[in-house]
Design the sequence.
C-alpha cells in the first residue's frame, strides 16, 4: 500500500500541475500561431521545390559523354587530315620546285 501511495502521489501532483498550466497564455498562443504560419510557409516552399524536381529535364550526362567521345574521334580525324594536307602541300611545293628547275634547265616557258 505504501508503494502505491509512493507512486500515485507524484502522478497526481504531475497531473494537477499539467491542468494548472493549461491556461491560454497570449505569448504562447502568438508563438504557436507564428510557428504554425512558418510551418505552412515551409511546406509551401517544399512543395514548390518538389515540383521543380519533378519537372527537371532528364539526365543527359551519358549522351554528353558519348558526344564528347565522338568529338574526340572527329578531332583526331581532323588532325590526321590536316597532317595529310600539310604533307601534300610540301610534296606539291617540292614538285613545283623540281618543275621550275626543269623549266629553267631546258628553257621551257
Sequence:
Amino acid at each position: 500500500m505504501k508503494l502505491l501511495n509512493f507512486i500515485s502521489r507524484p502522478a497526481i501532483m504531475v497531473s494537477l500541475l499539467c491542468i494548472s498550466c493549461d491556461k491560454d497564455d497570449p505569448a504562447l498562443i502568438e508563438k504557436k500561431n507564428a510557428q504554425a504560419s512558418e510551418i505552412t510557409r515551409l511546406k509551401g516552399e517544399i512543395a514548390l521545390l518538389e515540383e521543380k524536381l519533378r519537372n527537371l529535364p532528364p539526365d543527359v550526362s551519358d549522351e554528353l559523354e558519348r558526344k564528347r567521345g565522338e568529338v574526340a574521334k572527329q578531332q583526331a580525324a581532323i588532325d590526321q587530315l590536316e597532317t595529310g594536307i600539310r604533307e601534300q602541300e610540301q610534296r606539291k611545293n617540292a614538285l613545283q620546285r623540281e618543275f621550275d628547275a626543269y623549266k629553267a634547265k631546258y628553257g621551257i616557258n
User: Anything to note?
Assistant: The chain has three helices and no strands.
